[in-house]
Amino acid sequence: MSPKKILLTGSAGQIGQVLVNALIDRYGRDNVIATDISNDPGFSCRYEKLNVLDKEGMVKALKDHEVDHFYHLAAILSAKGEQNPSQAWEVNMRGLLNALESAVECKVNRVFFPSSIAVFGEGVDKTFTAQDSVLIPTSVYGISKAAGENWCNYYFEKYGLDVRSLRYPGVIGHQTMPGGGTTDYAVDIYYAAIENGHFNCFLKKDSPLPMMYMGDAIRATIELMEADKVRLNVRTSYNLQGITFTPEEIYKSIKKLHPDFTIDYQPDFRQEIADSWPSRLDDSSARGDWGWQPEYDLEKMTEEMNSAILAKQLN
Ligand code: AKB
């Protein structure tokens, strides 16, 4: 089923910018409306400024454009959230409640909510975290995402709102820079290899985290949003597994292409956040329900990241 009109919040963010362009390619630019609190990054579709804390503005945008699919991406990530917990809670939680309430009021057909591996903390098997593990997050970002997942499930049960969600791992892409996350190092390291030949890593060398190449993350998002409703058994958020690696492993994979590349490890407050997260997730529900399959491993991702960044620098 092809949506009539698609609206996104947080469009100027790391995933937002790439997702907007993927949706334009798929459904046409006249059918996509990108919104964000910041300025238009230069999308070819319609762009509107929207603060997710402005519910009236959100309802107006959904009504004006008769929105069918609503991607609510705006959020403050894990590392930035620790610097101002109440602001992170307000943006992530009030923003989501505004999105859910507005979606019901405007009879939106489908809603997408990005959750995260940050929902997990103590009490889980970190090496193969089950879909229905206990959620005891340690960051305010994780707390907001765990509560958010439950709100999504509540809106599905109580109002029949067709909300779909993924627990994103760290997402790695060359198109946009991430901001405020604990997994951001895995994007920065590719630029450092090309631009400086050296990287200071804010995590320990042997700290494994689940990650995913942007191409896989965007495909997963669109596949979930296009999946037949009757196949979806998870209405909190689906575990999603891509690639698991440590800083030392990604460094070695880049060093194959840049033999003089060096690295130092200077763990900071983000190490504690990373230590609380799983290293690998059991995503069998996503595979079974809607056919999820990742395509990228570490080497394939490194080759693409490296050539895309080099090509950007030549332009
Ligand atoms: C972060 O590091 O905060 C995010 C995430 C894993 O949700 N990339």
Structure commentary:
It is a single chain. This protein is an alpha/beta fold and 315 residues long. The chain folds into two domains: 6-171 and 211-239, Rossmann fold (3-Layer(aba) Sandwich), CATH 3.40.50; 172-210 and 243-314, UDP-galactose 4-epimerase, domain 1 (Alpha-Beta Complex), CATH 3.90.25. 43% of the residues lie in helices and 17% in strands. The chain has helices spanning 14-27, 55-64, 78-83, 85-105, 140-159, 185-195, 214-226, 247-255, 270-276, 284-290, 298-314; strands at residues 6-9, 32-36, 46-49, 69-72, 110-116, 162-168, 170-172, 198-201, 209-213, 238-239, 243-245, 262-265. The strands form three sheets. The protein has a seven-stranded parallel β-sheet, sandwiched between helices. The chain is globular and about 55 Å long. Bound molecules: 2-amino-3-ketobutyric acid. 2-amino-3-ketobutyric acid binds at residues 77-78, 116-118, 141, 168, 170, 181-183.
A few lines on this structure:
With 315 residues, the chain is an alpha/beta fold.
Strand content: 15-25%
Instruction: Give the overall silhouette.
Output: globular
- The H/E string reads EHEEHEHHEHEEHEEHEEHEHHH
Radius of gyration, in Å, reads: 19 Å
Using the coordinates above, name the CATH class of the largest domain. Alpha Beta
The number of E-state strands comes to 12
Cofactors, ions and other ligands in the entry: 2-amino-3-ketobutyric acid
Span between N and C termini?
Answer: 38 Å
Structural class: alpha/beta
Give a quick account of the main beta sheet: strands, pairing sense, barrel closure. Answer: 7 strands, parallel
CATH topology group of the largest domain? Rossmann fold
Count every helix, treating DSSP H or I runs of 4 or more residues as helices: 11
CATH superfamily of the largest domain: NAD(P)-binding Rossmann-like Domain
Percent helix range: 40-55%
Mean pLDDT: 97
Strand order of the largest sheet: 3-2-1-4-5-6-10
CATH 2nd-level architecture of the largest domain = 3-Layer(aba) Sandwich
Number of domains: 2
Poorly predicted ranges: none
